[in-house]
Amino acid sequence: MGAVVGEEWTRRCLVRADRRAVGFIGLALLSFAVLWLVSVWIGSKWVFVLIPLCIEFAVPGLRHFVCRRKVRRLAEDYSWHPVSVSFVPGRSRIGRQAYLETEGSDRTFLRLPEMPERAREDVRRTGKLWLAGPDDRGRTAVLTPETPFVTLGRVVIR
């Protein structure tokens, strides 16, 4: 990875995120279809109590498509800049969320609503992220330098 994150890397990360989001939504639809087939096969509607599981499968994909426009706008309005980060002890993994502390900050965290394990390993190894923003509401586009991963993060004050 070069010294500057360019338009090509941003586009590649967004395409990868789109594919991952479609995969999550597809998994949710497939699991709903399986529930429907099982209910027909056993003749009971009680299997539909598992519908919240189907919704849980779809959440990461739906979150991506809701936030995609914001990520693109932040990437267009602000230039990408590298930031040294480290995981916050005790808060580094809350579900799929991640809390990161930027180097030199005294009271702020970077909260990422979703961070897969491959991106976590990249951050642990390099200690770097690229940010575009934050805007006036604290939202920032976050990009990993080696693994194609982009998401919308938020700067929060402890």
Give a verbal description of the structure.
The chain is of the alpha+beta class and 158 residues long. The protein has helices spanning 7-42, 51-77, 117-126; strands spanning 80-87, 98-102, 108-112, 128-132, 139-143, 150-157. A six-stranded antiparallel β-barrel has the order 1-2-3-6-5-4. α1 runs antiparallel to α2. The longest helix is centred in the first third of the chain and has 36 residues, at 7-42. It is elongated, with a radius of gyration of 18 Å. The model has no long low-confidence stretch (mean pLDDT 82).
Task: Describe the secondary-structure layout.
Blueprint: H1 7-42, H2 51-77, E1 80-87, E2 98-102, E3 108-112, H3 117-126, E4 128-132, E5 139-143, E6 150-157
Antiparallel strand pairs: 1-2, 1-4, 2-3, 3-6, 4-5, 5-6
Helix pairs in contact: 1-2
Radius of gyration: 18 Å
Outline: elongated
Distance from N terminus to C terminus (CA atoms, Å) equals 32 Å
What fraction of residues sit in β-strands? 15-25%
Fraction of residues in H or I helices: 40-55%
Number of helices: 3
Structural class: alpha+beta
Question: Strand order across the biggest sheet?
Answer: 1-2-3-6-5-4
Order of helices and strands: HHEEEHEEE
Uncertain segments:
none
Largest sheet: 6 strands, antiparallel, barrel
The gist of it:
It contains 3 helices and 6 strands; from the N terminus they run ααβββαβββ. By secondary structure, the chain is α+β, with helices and mostly antiparallel strands.
Feature tags:
158 residues; 3 helices; single chain
